[in-house]
């Protein structure tokens, strides 16, 4: 009977690194596209203060099914309002992350990165 081996050093499932930089108090729209149909997936995204570990604000998330070059894809729009970005006070350090939960209930962090809010 054939056997298979798995080298654990070769497997990676890290989120895409997407740093966000903007002016504090400005609206922040972020658009991304995934080359898969995300029907039935639940998406969420938030900004967390690294120093406190507490969430500061949550993105509004919308997803739109599309077809790109004949293949299913999904456009995802994330938005922070002016009021939300005003809460991000330098010199505190922030990170953001977007998670999805599959229809089978599996959670995955798909994008994450640092957040730099510059003062007006």
Tell me about this structure.
The protein is mostly beta strands and 120 residues long. Helix content is 4%, strand content 53%. It is built from 1 helix and 9 strands. The chain has one helix at 82-86, and strands at 16-17, 20-23, 28-34, 42-49, 55-58, 60-68, 71-80, 94-101, 107-118. The strands form 2 sheets. Strands 1, 2, 4, 5, 8 and 9 form a 6-stranded mixed sheet that branches. A hairpin with a 5-residue loop joins strand 8 and strand 9 (107-118). The termini are far apart. 16% of the residues are buried.
Layout of strands and helices, then pairs:
Elements (H helix, E strand, L loop, with lengths): L15 E2 L2 E4 L4 E7 L7 E8 L5 E4 L1 E9 L2 E10 L1 H5 L7 E8 L5 E12 L2
Parallel strand pairs: 1-9, 2-9
Antiparallel strand pairs: 3-7, 4-5, 4-8, 6-7, 8-9
């Amino acid at each position: 009977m054939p056997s298979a081996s798995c080298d654990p050093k070769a497997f990676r499932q890290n989120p895409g690194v997407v740093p966000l930089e903007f002016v504090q108090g400005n609206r922040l729209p972020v658009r991304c596209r995934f080359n898969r149909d995300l029907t039935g997936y639940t998406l969420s995204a938030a900004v967390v203060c690294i120093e406190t570990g507490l969430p500061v604000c949550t993105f509004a998330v919308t997803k739109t099914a599309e077809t790109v070059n004949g293949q299913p894809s999904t456009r995802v729009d994330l938005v922070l309002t002016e009021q939300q970005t005003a809460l991000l006070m330098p010199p505190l350090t922030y990170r953001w992350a977007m998670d999805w939960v599959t229809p089978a209930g599996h959670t995955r962090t798909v994008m994450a990165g640092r957040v730099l809010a510059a003062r007006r």
